[in-house]
Amino acid sequence: MTRFTTSRRALLGAGALLPALASPALAFPDQTVRVIVPWNAGGLADVVMRAIAPVMTASLGQPVVIENRAGANGAVGTQAVAQARGDGHTLILANAETHAINPLVYPRLAYDPVADFTPVTIFARGPFVLITRPGLGATDLNAFLAMARARRGQLTFASWGIGSTSHLAMERLMRSTGIELLHVPFTGAAPASTAILGGQVDVMFLNAGPAEAIARDGRARILGLGATERLALLPNVPTMAELGTPVEAANWFGLLGPARMPAAAAQRLSAVAGEAVRQPAVQEIFRTQAAIPVMMTPEETGRFIAADRERWNLVVRDLNIRLE
């Protein structure tokens, strides 16, 4: 199985930063801060959170520990945080699935994405690239689209779950180009990309950093980038828009706490996370994963998530996706 990891040295370097990050002692936090990552270990969400956790630990003066609790497109771990005490010591690593898409596709979702949470920050964005299995024969995006039109409904695409960003990004591509592919959902990005590597599935949208790692030695081919501009990690990969197919595909990563979390705690956590993504060691990890640092206040985070949910609502409503 393909493993998406970053180096031990880089992660240790992220924690070995100048003590200047530490702020004066406050009542918060007075115990360990637990961050639930509602996805399997090794994926991009897990890697970016583990990159900033040591820096946040140094700043807060309390351990920031990570707990992976995957399931139901991120809903299992997210529900656990919704039910936690609102004292700021339990957080969710949120993304588009947990707080923008799940509320639209699960009619009986066990949490309310607005009422049950306190926005803290968004600290990273992760653009996707379109990759194909080795040996497919399509050397560029236009060749792939021509192949898909000629073999309508015969080519397959992987995703990390029905209603996931990888699934909906491909639906956008199909709608905008008139192609039709067969969906093969998996339980995570790692098994989905493993199926691409093994030739069991033809194509998928994958986070750009992990995709670069598996394409570097020819195990997969990158056809285009679903971002507005090229990435430093993939300078020779054109955006989809450059190739005449302007489909954006990406995810975002942030921190939210339970409802009734003190505003002072949210503000402090937001500031500490913002300081973390400015650190060179963290930025190097982000660079190798094609993650783009972002710094948002709690207020900006709330507005951004609301706008993102509305943006995805147009896609979900058009496709009439509903999950039990």
Automatic annotation (TrEMBL):
Q: Which domain of life is it from?
A: Bacteria
Keywords noted in UniProt: Signal
The answer, when asked if Lyase is one of the entry's keywords, is: no
What Pfam families does the database record attribute to this sequence? Answer: TctC
* UniProt keyword Signal, yes or no: yes
Look up the signal peptide feature and give its range. 1-27
* Entry-linked CDD domains: PBP2_Bug_TTT
- What is the similarity comment for this entry? Belongs to the UPF0065 (bug) family.
Q: Which PANTHER family match?
A: BLR1237 PROTEIN, TRICARBOXYLATE-BINDING PROTEIN
Q: What is this protein called?
A: Tripartite tricarboxylate transporter substrate binding protein
Lineage start: Bacteria, Pseudomonadati, Pseudomonadota, Alphaproteobacteria, Acetobacterales
